[in-house]
């Protein structure tokens, strides 16, 4: 594995990278077991589409609103629209499970003296809830929400805001995301990037190029020569 040099801070995406967005439907007994994966996929797909389209339209609302709208679409598509089910799924989204490799990776980076932070589409309240539930708070220097700029990733202003909050240059930052579109955009912005390609997806056809493609967050320390 090629080494990435000169990194002083690691910036992580939240949903799909540190937190498993599939764990909401997986823990919801109100959703038939044979529909949970399909519901998760459509919910996530519409969540991302709505965030991008709202940014293009300059009609920003926070990510909790976007997540609720996407869930409404998915539930209606599968004939599962029911107020109590919707409420349960939205509550579960606030307490998503962290991936098993999240805490150990953050702990290793912190022990090596690196700064760690989140940059996410999530609203401040959503992120505070997820971080508290996961127990990752003591392993993070800060959490940055795109709510601070009123646009969703991949708007360059979102990446610029995170770096400004960290007070660090793009080339001294390793951005880690499981979302290919996010990883490529982070690279195009000028950060060093590790694409945590959990699903083994093919390369994106977008500007930018990740410095490394890894299968797990556990690979990040080795990228930085810490393993």
Please explain how this structure is put together.
It is a single chain. The chain folds into two domains: 9-20 and 96-223, HAD superfamily/HAD-like (Rossmann fold), CATH 3.40.50.1000; 23-93, Putative phosphatase, domain 2 (DNA polymerase, domain 1), CATH 1.10.150. It has helices at 23-26, 36-57, 63-77, 83-93, 102-111, 124-134, 156-166, 180-189, 220-223, and strands at residues 9-12, 19-20, 97-98, 115-120, 142-145, 173-177, 192-196, 212-214. Helix 2 (36-57) crosses helix 3 (63-77). Helices cover 43% and strands 14% of the residues. It has a six-stranded parallel beta sheet with strand order 5-4-1-6-7-8, sandwiched between helices. It is an alpha/beta fold and 227 residues long. It starts with 8 loop residues before the first strand and ends with a helix. The chain contains nine helices and eight strands.
Topology:
Layout: E1 9-12, E2 19-20, H1 23-26, H2 36-57, H3 63-77, H4 83-93, E3 97-98, H5 102-111, E4 115-120, H6 124-134, E5 142-145, H7 156-166, E6 173-177, H8 180-189, E7 192-196, E8 212-214, H9 220-223
Parallel strand pairs: 1-4, 1-6, 4-5, 6-7, 7-8
Antiparallel strand pairs: 2-3
Helix pairs in contact: 2-3
Descriptors:
227 residues, alpha/beta, Rossmann fold, DNA polymerase, domain 1, 2 domains, six-stranded parallel β-sheet, two-stranded antiparallel ribbon, 8 strands, 14% strand
What's this, in brief?
The protein has 9 helices and 8 strands.
């Amino acid at each position: 594995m090629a080494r990435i040099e000169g990194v002083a801070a690691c910036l992580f995406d939240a949903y799909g990278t540190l937190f498993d967005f599939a764990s909401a439907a997986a823990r919801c007994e109100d959703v038939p077991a044979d529909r949970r994966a399909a519901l998760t996929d459509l919910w996530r797909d519409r969540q991302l589409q709505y965030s991008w389209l709202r940014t293009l339209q300059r009609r920003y609302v926070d990510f909790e609103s976007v997540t609720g709208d996407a869930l409404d679409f998915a539930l209606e598509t599968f004939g599962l629209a029911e107020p109590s089910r919707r409420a349960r799924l939205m509550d579960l989204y606030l307490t998503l499970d962290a991936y098993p490799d999240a805490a150990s990776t953050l702990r290793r980076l912190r022990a090596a003296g690196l700064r760690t932070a989140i940059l996410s589409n999530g609203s401040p309240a959503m992120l505070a809830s997820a971080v508290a539930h996961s127990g990752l708070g003591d392993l993070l220097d800060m959490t940055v929400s795109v709510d601070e700029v009123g646009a969703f990733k991949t708007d360059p202003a979102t990446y610029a805001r995170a770096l400004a909050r960290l007070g660090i240059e793009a080339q001294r930052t390793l951005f880690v995301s499981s979302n290919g579109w996010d990883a490529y955009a982070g690279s195009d912005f000028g950060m060093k990037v590790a694409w945590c390609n959990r699903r083994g997806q093919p390369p994106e056809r977008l500007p930018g190029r990740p410095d490394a493609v890894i299968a797990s967050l556990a690979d990040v320390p080795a990228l930085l020569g810490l393993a």
